[in-house]
Amino acid sequence: MSNYKKIFKIAFPSIATNISVPLLGFADMAIAGHIGAAPYIAAVSLGAAMISLLYWNFGFLRMSTTALTAQALGARKLGVCCQVLVRALVIAMIGAVAILLIKNLIIELVLRYSEASVETEELTSRYINICLLGAPASLATYTFKGWLVGMQNTKSTMYIAVGENMLNVLLSAFFVFAFEMGIEGIALGTVVAQYLGAAFCAYIYITSYKKIGQYADFSHPFDGIFSFFKVNSLIFVRNLCMIAVTVCFTLFGSSYGELVLAVNACIMQFFTFFSYFMDGFAFAGEAIVGKTEGARQFDEQRRTIQRLFNIGIAMAITFAVIYGLGLTPIVSLLTDDVAVRETSKDLRLYAMLIPIMSFAAFLWDGIYVGKLMSKHMSISLLLAATVFFTIYNTMSETFGSDVLWIAFLSYAATRGLYQTVVYYKNATV
């Protein structure tokens, strides 16, 4: 199979998986909108955003599991593949228990900084309180999907994600409209779907991978645990930097007024949508580069990286053209507000630059994960975050609200540039 075919075979199911996520959020919003007024929609929006942010902190589980599994698979160490999965699941369960133990504290922190109405806060509290009961299933599924990517099986991850999201919508609607459970019904539908998704993961393992368990050696359970935590801790630092920039972009934008905040939120959707596609190719990079790293097939690895960037450049140019020509109709799909539509036209250049400035960072992240170069990946985020905050703090008075996009695009470009320099400086094999 050619490199391009391998890349697309892994990338396309991942893209389909990514796209199913916002559709789920849209469906939950629609259900909330039919059981009450604005407070219900606000509660689901706020609660879902905070839970997603919480789980995002455990993104290291998926990424490190993918990389370690892919490298073990490339080295034909099936037993190690199984050990990686078990080790990651144990850590996921420890994390889930920790979430459940501090559940009330999490809810208190969310509400303290929400500035929402009393009714919205009450609804949000009830929603989050139930949703967090799904933490064990959610983190287990997250980990298992990372393992499947490492095993070069993204088709199964797509089935898991799409199936779980469809069940979520159906169950939430059923609990809300058949049993009149209100916002608790939306949350309960999510939790039940998460546990069914975890059960489906177990089914996939039993039917397709159970035999590799016979190769696993658990006589030394702590072997390799240091490297596992080292990789995870570095990726955790990376994720914290990304969260800091994302959250501060919104917080800083709020200081310029509601119109700027709304316009920036719309344009940021252009970045989010582009990320759905590029993450698919980043996953392909994690899986294929990790496997070739384990197999010591460095010529094929270089060819894979070259083809990933050929695809990335083509995608960046395509999206830049689409965003430039289609900005107005795209924003019109997001809002009916005339002021937001008109003001968004002033950000056309930034919208076009989003894919150009960010595509390399997505691809390098996948490649670096596959090569277990998490140290430099974390450094790139620390450096990029420093660039973001420095530009904002030193240039905000000169450029006004535009400084947010100048800082954000510089942040994205810095990530890609740093990782490009480091890769070619260390490409000795």
Nutshell version of this structure?
With 429 residues, the chain is mostly helical. The chain has 16 helices and no strands.
Mean pLDDT level: 86
Number of helices: 16
C-alpha Rg (nearest Å): 22 Å
**Low-pLDDT segments:** none
What is the quaternary state of this protein? Answer: single chain
Report how far the terminal alpha carbons are from each other.
Answer: 23 Å
Number of strands: 0
* Class from secondary-structure proportions: mainly alpha
Explain the overall architecture.
By secondary structure, the protein is mainly alpha-helical. The chain folds into 2 domains: 1-221, no CATH class; 224-429, no CATH class. It contains 16 helices and no strands. It has helices spanning 3-33, 38-56, 59-74, 78-101, 103-112, 118-131, 135-150, 154-177, 183-208, 225-254, 258-295, 298-334, 338-344, 348-370, 374-399, 402-426. Helix 6 runs parallel beside helix 9 (183-208), helix 7 (135-150) runs parallel beside helix 9 and helix 11 (258-295) runs parallel beside helix 14 (348-370). It starts with a helix and ends with a helix.
